[in-house]
Amino acid sequence: MQARSERTLRCGRSVLAAIGFCAATMIAGASLAAPPADCGETPDGFSAWLNGFRRDAEIAGLPPAVIESALSGATYDPDIIAHDRRQGSFHEDFEKFAAKRVSAYRVRKGRQMLIAYAEPLEKIEHRFGVPGPVLVAIWGLETEFGAGLGTYPTFNALTTLAYDCRRSEQFRAELVDALKLVARGDMQPDEMRGAWAGEIGQTQFMPSTYLKYAIGADGGTVADLVSNPEDALASTANFLRGKGWKPGEGWHEGEPNFAALLEWNSAPVYAKTIAYFADRLAADQPQ
């Protein structure tokens, strides 16, 4: 699957005022909040903006080596801006939207994945209460079960969107969190590629979500959401449970767990498509 040109980000939040992993080097009260004018609509001011961000990040306590390794090659990508401006499919009616995404191939492949990952999915459901069909539906919709993780360099995507004025503060926060992932040792910058808006891994976590909800399928805190589907599925379940998923309850619109699906993607048509796909997958499961 190509990097998605349609995205409602699920984890926008205020820019952090401190960098948690590096408390010993923080300057108390330092903030990376972007002033309203600290953005641009054309590539002309990108280099100056990036230099300013790098200075702010170092003042706030991020290791200079991390900043250098992640941002030294970052470039403005107009293709990312084009993707950001055209997300009209989320306004399609449900039948049209779902028909494009819940294909016969995806249903067949999803059922194969339920069998292939039956044991870890059972453990994940026991731990988090999220059924396998829901997790596999998300996996299939996001990356075609890992076949299309995206090819956009994550730091190009995040710096471009943090510089752009439309959602500068939101993406500046995600850029900080991406640097924290590198500092924490989760990934190296050259390994970080994904969707146009900065999502990473088998089920497409934003950096802020990765930091908070990534978890190993074995119960450990070390997780690889890019090349380990079991970790990605466990982390997706951890996210949903953290957003209020209620074990044993329904997931359709009007049912208790639909709100958790909206936390995954705030577009109702997308959440309804997850629910529909999960139903198709669950239909063949032994009771």
Any overview of this molecule?
- It contains 13 helices and 2 strands.
- It has a two-stranded antiparallel ribbon.
- It folds into 2 domains: 20-85 and 150-200, Orthogonal Bundle (Helicase, Ruva Protein, domain 3), CATH 1.10.8; 93-149 and 211-282, Orthogonal Bundle (Lysozyme), CATH 1.10.530.10.
- It starts with 45 loop residues before the first helix and ends in a 5-residue tail after the last helix.
- The protein is mainly alpha-helical and 287 residues long.
Give a quick precis of the structure.
This protein is mainly alpha-helical and 287 residues long.
Notable characteristics:
287 residues, two-stranded antiparallel sheet, 1% strand, Helicase, Ruva Protein, domain 3, 13 helices, mainly alpha, 50% helix, 2 domains, Lysozyme, 2 strands
Strand content: under 5%
Structural class: mainly alpha
Q: Please state how the strands of the largest beta sheet are arranged side by side.
A: 1-2
Number of strands: 2
CATH class categorisation of the largest domain: Mainly Alpha
What oligomerization state is this entry in?
Answer: single chain
Number of helices: 13
Task: Give the second-level CATH assignment, the architecture of the largest domain.
Answer: Orthogonal Bundle
What global shape is seen?
globular
Based on CA atoms alone, the radius of gyration comes out at 19 Å
